[in-house]
Amino acid sequence: GKRKKSSRGPAKKLKQTLATTFSCLFCNHENSVICSMDKKLGVGNLYCKICGQTFQASINALSAPIDVYSDWVDACEAVAAEGEKGFVVDDRRGQVDDEEALPASDEEDDDQEEEF
User: Fold this and answer.
1) Which of 3, 51, 98, 104 has the highest Cβ tally under 10 A?
2) 30, pLDDT greater than 60
3) Average pLDDT of the chain?
4) The dihedral formed by the CA atoms of 12, 16, 17 and 18, expressed in degrees to the nearest 10
5) DSSP-derived 3-state class of residue 2
6) Which range marks the domain in which residue 75 is found?
């Protein structure tokens, strides 16, 4: 009779690796943000190779690079929401309070028109 073939072992499962490079929120370049994690110090750092933007967040033993990136996204959204709520952004002067951004009263303009 014929020799029986030995069966192959089970196929190895491919382990998916999580990304460590991300898109920058400020310059919108793909794969320009590098994440480095120091688990002994409990600190995760993000750095954009293009625009130089940096971010630092606290991490724990179970944290992954995507966790640091999501903390950065949340922090940027919080700053944007704060900017919409209480401040008016003026390109010439930076951020000013709503009360200071209001124009001067129209009484001065009325006085000037009466002189003519």
Assistant:
1) 51
2) yes
3) 80
4) -160
5) coil
6) 21-101
